[in-house]
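Predict both folds.
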Amino acid sequence: MLRYFIKRLLAVIPTIILISIFVFMFVRFIPGDPARRVAGPDATLEDVEMIRESLGLNKPVIDQYKDYMLGLLKGDMGDSLKTKRPVSYEIGLRYMNTVKLTVASLFWSVLFGVFIGVFSGKNRSKWQDYAGMTFAVSGISIPSFWLGLILIDIIAVKLNLLPTVGSGSIKHLILPSITLGASVAAIIARFTRSSIIEVLKEDYIRTARAKGLKENKVLWKHVFRNSMMSVVTVVGLQFGFLLGGSVVTESVFAYSGLGSLLIDSVNFRDYPMIQSLILIFSLHFVLINLLVDLIYAALNPEIQLQ
């Protein structure tokens, strides 16, 4: 297991380097001049040039990338062009809010998605299956921003049950987490259903039934446990998707997290903040994939041998 862990960890390094290059170049293609935004509309060309020089934007792109990577290795992400404060400080203020939102979304989407998936798979081609898959298709098809606006209109405005916008309490998490987790719950439900149906066809399930085991015991002891092997992978990938998807949801609910911070930074052409946030979102994906691979290998040792 240790050898497999080291091998996977080393494979992550070139991935991270490629991501950092891609993110750095991508940010440079965003239209607009950050030096002009910092200088203000009344600044002269000389003032703009001075600011561009102070920010290092007049250097060749390769030199800018080297400076950025050297800063990262020292734990320095630079200063925000908008607030003039360290990027790490700004991200630290909002990081836990996004983590809370993501964890809450994943929690209920896994709970609900697995339940619907098992329920549908067990009752394949019956009304329960059709009802469950109708939910799944609806969850995938409905745009998250539209679902968020509907929830705000009905639950927050008309029924006055929950706050419409903001962050800071559990009540502020409910509507955004439902909005963010709806499509993930649908994907997990569909995947769990397929996995349950596949496992139900296995010979050892027929053997278990032939031995006279009760259907519920066959389902939860043999079918459920074996079908969850592949569902773990999907859940891990969806966790990364939730982090990235928080950009839209946080904007709809004016939730103070990394997603809304990214939107503000793009509007201001805040290069250091944008590239640091995108890099953090990407690193989450990489690390979650690594964690999922390790969990998968722990559950199925044959993977380590392969």
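Second protein follows, with its predicted structure tokens after the sequence.
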Amino acid sequence: MRIAIETLTLDNGLRVVLSEDHTAPIVAVNLWYHVGSGNERSGRTGFAHLFEHMLFQGSEHVAANEHFELIARAGGTLNGSTWLDRTNYYETVPSNQLALALWLEADRMGALLPGMTQEKLDTQRDVVKNERRWTVDNQPYGSWWEKLPALAYPANHPFHHSLIGSFEDLDAASLPDVSEFFATYYTPDNAVLSLAGDFERSEAVVLIERFFGSIPRGAGKPPLADTALPPVFGAPLREVVPDNVSLPRLYLAFRSPPFGSPGHYAASVCATILGTRKTSRLQRSLIREQRVAAEASAFTFDLAKGADLLVLDVLALPGVSADTLEAAVLEEVERIHRDGVTEEEVVRAIALIETGWTLSMESATGRADKLSMFATYFDDPSLVNEQSDRYREVTSDSVSRFARERLGPDNRATLLYVQAETAAQAAA
């Protein structure tokens, strides 16, 4: 699957990616800022995610929540998301509403700060704190997505700290703090704007120049702290988490090559062989044959800087102990580490990955997001047209080599959730 791509850069540094497709009368507007939680400094965590909320709280010309209302009334959809190394905002609207979507994105890029108030900050700070209570602190296993990076990345690494931030840091955030963060990172020269779908190229370029062209470039952002790490942890890492949960759950992470590197594709195929769909090794062995797990999956974090993580996530069946679950998972890991994979498994995994990739690229929303992603990480959106070929270059030898080099005991970070009551009884 290949799509048409045109790129241009405005004088203020905003990179623009255009991909016309007149199949359906809709257009996706997708804006990636190259800032995530990894760009936050110590004592001021959670800012990137906080801005995922703040950017919907209005600007100099748009009232709080009016962005949502305008897009909804136009028949569109929208949202945003934050990750360790990027933040994105996106709308998909009927083709005749392209100007509205572009103006709204440009307005909050260029005029957010004049509309920012202490009241808006306090309100969204409370919203984020409630989100943290709901998704992390009071959600079974919810703390895994801050405990696992904390275990797998060194304390001075930019990916070590929590994406959602701590209560202390959120409480300490002042209006000047968040204003400085926005002025540093939410600038045209730190962003990629992608359009995919039904639009006319000449009209779109005129609109983009009109709405975004006068926004000044930023003063430059501080360099990201060093993300380079050795290929393996060097020794097993382990944390047992007694928690208010009903079933043991194991997260087992391996340091793996960064997203987009040649080694990443073998790691991705290995993860698929281990944990995607019912015929994967973990699901077949642990769920259907041994009946020790209720759920099993494997995936990569897809981090493009330094070192990525391949993660296994396995939930025990009722009545199965944490020790039994962990032993069963490790047996499967040892098997693939020792014996490698078969050609048949690799062919199946690549077919699954290609199917998922093609489905994600069928929608204008998905295409625009992938274009922004490759433009942001690699300054090359045309890489979307090469992904299938890169996966097809993966062989059983390259996956087996990855498993041999990266799934050994010297490269395992174990996060094991156990029932708090059981742990207390064992300690008595």
